Amino acid sequence: MSNPEISIVMPAYGVEKYISAAIESVLKQDFQDWELLVVLDGIKDKSDEVAREYEQKDSRIKVLEKENGGLSDARNYGLDRAVGEYVHFFDSDDTIEPDFYSRMHSAITTNNKDLVICGYYVDTESGDTTTLTEHKFIDCLEPVPAKFDLNLVGQYVNFAWNKLFKREFLVRDKLYYQKGLFGYEDVEFMSRYMQYHPDIMFISYLGYHYFNRQRETLSRIFDQKLVERAAGNLQCYRTLLSSFSIDKNSIDKAVSQAVLGAYKALFPLVFEQKQNRLNLIRWVLNEKSLFELLPAKIDGNIMDKVFCFLIRYRLSTIIFLYYKFR
After folding, report:
1. What is the rounded radius of gyration, in angstroms, for the C-alpha atoms of the chain?
2. Cα separation, 149 vs 202, whole angstroms
3. What CA–CA distance (Å, rounded) separates 262 from 227?
4. What's the pTM value of the predicted model, to 2 decimals?
5. How many Cα atoms are found within 13 Å in the side-chain-facing hemisphere of 86?
6. Which end of the chain is more exposed for a tag (fewer CB within 10 A), N or C?
7. Where do runs of H (alpha helix) occur along 93-183?
């Protein structure tokens, strides 16, 4: 029996509510030449039972079990055991459109590329309602599309799941996900991957559904590692942009906006805490890993410039009052 064209690597940990929908969306594909490697990254719930039921029904589904090592480790484990010509890293709490693999496979084989990147939906769940937001790029065979908007890099290139990779390219250069990271493992991987100058293309096709679900109350606790993760993400983002051979001024501008965006995301999380909010703001402002990425000046609107000023001079009380009364 010949090897399948596509190997689907699906890490699974604590997803018993969602993994069935993910696997069902694979089974509904109009492209059938695939193998699905469900990597159980330590058994936390009944995800293993759900996956093994599907394994019994379809020989193309293989359930692999390993000790808990995190998302990157699970992806690497699956990649080492994949035999397909191409690889898709599929998060087990998302879904794909029925023509996802036929469209992605056609694009990467017809144009003889190392990587194809598609658009996607963000499915935001709120109660019983789900809102779909389209992230649709352009069709482009060039690695740097004309009039490339750097803000789109973070929307399309940073992630693992809206891509089909040529497996030989990954194996040849020993490209694995870095273990031990959380929250920016995808952009870190892509920042290294792009250094090997793969032949890539973008397609406007919307094929992947990334689910943005309501987080549990416990996950809203402010974790001081969030600042470290934000800084790591931004450092990798700069490296990723540099691989597109874009001029330094444009990169600096894009990164400065991203740094400001990181602060704007962190402060509201601080205000979800019930106590020590002012001290947490002071702590965030004094964290060098993120602060050192703040640009000397920012090309933005007046509010962005004011916000940058408040951060640069660590005016924690004013920032505290702004978020308290806004």
Report:
1. 21
2. 13
3. 9
4. 0.91
5. 22
6. N
7. 100-110, 151-156, 167-172
- CA dist., res. 121 & res. 124, Å (int): 9
Measured distance CA(308)–CA(275) in Å, rounded: 25
Q: What is the DSSP string of 166-212?
A: EHHHHHHTT--PPTT--S-HHHHHHHHHGGG---EEEEEEEEEEEEE
At what angle are helices 185-193 and 71-81 packed, to 10 degrees?
50
Which of 243, 268, 254 has the alpha carbon at shortest distance from 191?
243
Does an H or E element contain 10, and which?
A: strand 6-12
Whole-angstrom distance, CA of residue 292 vs CA of residue 299: 18
User: Cα separation of 183 and 180, whole Å?
Assistant: 10
* Distant-in-sequence, close-in-space partners of 322: CB < 8 Å, separation ≥ 6: 310
For the stretch 3-43, pLDDT in tens is: 999 999 999 999 999 999 999 999 999 999 999 999 999 98
Which residue is it, tokens 């803000």?
A: 151
| Residue 31: both structure tokens together | 């492209």
Assess contact for 12 and 40: CB atoms under 8 A: yes
- In this prediction, residue 249 carries a pLDDT of 83
| Direct distance between the N- and C-terminal alpha carbons of the chain, in angstroms, rounded to an integer | 64
- At a CB cut-off of 8 Å and minimum separation 6, what does 251 contact? 150, 238, 241, 242
| Chain centre to alpha carbon of residue 272 | 24
The answer to whether residues 198 and 114 touch, using CB atoms and an 8 Å cutoff, is yes
Buried b / exposed e along 139-157 (16+ C-beta atoms within 10 A): ebeebebeebebeebbebb
- Please report which confidence band the pLDDT of residue 216 belongs to, taking 50, 70 and 90 as the band edges: very low
SS3 162: coil
Q: What are the angstrom distances between the C-alpha of 207 and each of 28, 101, 154?
A: 13, 9, 18
